[in-house]
Specification:
342 residues, mainly alpha, 18 helices, globular, disordered N terminus
Length: 342
């Protein structure tokens, strides 16, 4: 199915939401099953890069209008980040308990990316991406600048010089944003060239082989976009972009998309910020009841299911009553019956 057909049938948004939902569920699972390092080696190359690549695919610069771009960025990402982050409760608690000296540290952690690192990184990355597209008109020059920034981000991170608000990460992920943007602009050609199953087999073999190399030669190592850790840069680059290409091409070919995973994909912002809320509640319940879930598959599954159920209910409530808090339009509408005239 080519890009034009996808656009007509409306499936484009669904397969992207499906991919985003899968990535979000991997984030939740892997924060629970921390001992499964082999799984990190398998999914690390596609988990966080996928979020940025989808952002690049959907990127809309509003024809270079700075105010419109900033308005959209504010209401879709910045405002929900501010409203949903429970970090704002900490300063008030510090004031009430006489620990006002801790307040600057709380704010520093928030804006520096020490807490919820993805949001300051994404905000800066989108601004950089927007500025490059606005002021550099030649497409190939844009690509060159984005790759140069990604390389510079790697060098800066290696020296440990720029970590506040993750400027180095925002530079590195220009490459992932660019992948999504490049794929959208060449979607029909790429789907035709790689879309046949036999054409995707060599790419899948390459990815699987590099996973094997990682597990054998770099045991315990995995790609960590947050801390910009790439254990072997050539291997990591190939794994990331081969993995992204396979996902973007073949996700469209799935006969159906599980509705709940699509729902998660449509609410990743709330899931990402809030999944530690039910996790914390579960930990408190364990301590209060003097029980402990086992540190094995059964324990991970119980925690995973509990978190997903709670967050799904919260997502439904936010979508219905406070959509602006999760970057969406709409909300409660109250209709009044017109007064009947005699």
């Amino acid at each position: 199915m080519d890009g034009a057909t996808l656009q007509k049938t409306g499936e484009r948004k669904q397969w992207l939401d499906f991919l985003r939902g899968v990535a979000m569920l991997l984030v939740v699972w892997e924060h629970l099953a921390t001992t499964w390092t082999f799984e990190f080696a398998i999914t690390g190359a596609i988990k966080m890069p996928l979020f940025f690549a989808i952002t690049g695919y959907l990127f809309h610069d509003r024809k270079g209008n700075v105010l419109l771009f900033l308005k959209k960025l504010f209401f879709s990402i910045v405002l929900p980040w501010f409203l949903l982050s429970l970090v704002w409760l900490k300063p008030f608690y510090a004031l009430l308990t006489g620990h006002a000296g801790k307040i600057p540290g709380y704010f520093y952690s928030f804006f520096s990316g020490a807490n919820l690192w993805f949001f300051p990184c994404l905000i800066l990355a989108e601004c950089i991406f927007f500025l490059i597209r606005k002021f550099i008109k030649n497409v190939y020059a844009q690509y060159a600048v984005m790759f140069a920034l990604a390389a510079a981000g790697m060098l800066i991170n290696g020296g440990g010089k720029v970590r506040f608000a993750l400027w180095d990460n925002a530079m590195i992920v220009q490459a992932y944003l660019l992948f999504g943007y490049w794929f959208r602009n060449n979607e029909a050609l790429l789907c035709k060239a790689v879309g046949k199953w036999q054409a995707g087999i060599p790419l899948a073999v390459v990815y699987a082989a590099l996973v094997g190399v990682t597990l054998y030669f770099y045991p315990g190592a995995f790609i960590d976009v947050h801390h910009a850790k790439y254990f072997n840069l050539p291997i990591c680059i190939v794994m990331i972009f081969v993995g992204l290409l396979l996902l973007f091409v073949y996700a469209q070919k799935l006969p159906r998309f599980p509705r709940w995973i699509v729902f998660v994909g449509q609410n990743t912002l709330l899931f990402y910020i809030g999944y530690y809320w039910p996790r914390s509640v579960l930990s408190l319940a364990e301590r209060y009841l003097h029980i402990a879930l086992p540190d094995n598959v059964l324990g991970y599954v119980v925690k995973f299911v509990f978190i997903c159920v709670v967050m799904s209910v919260l997502a439904l409530l936010f979508n219905r009553f406070l959509p602006f808090a999760v970057g969406k339009k709409g909300g409660i509408t109250i209709k009044f019956r017109k007064k009947e005239t005699v």
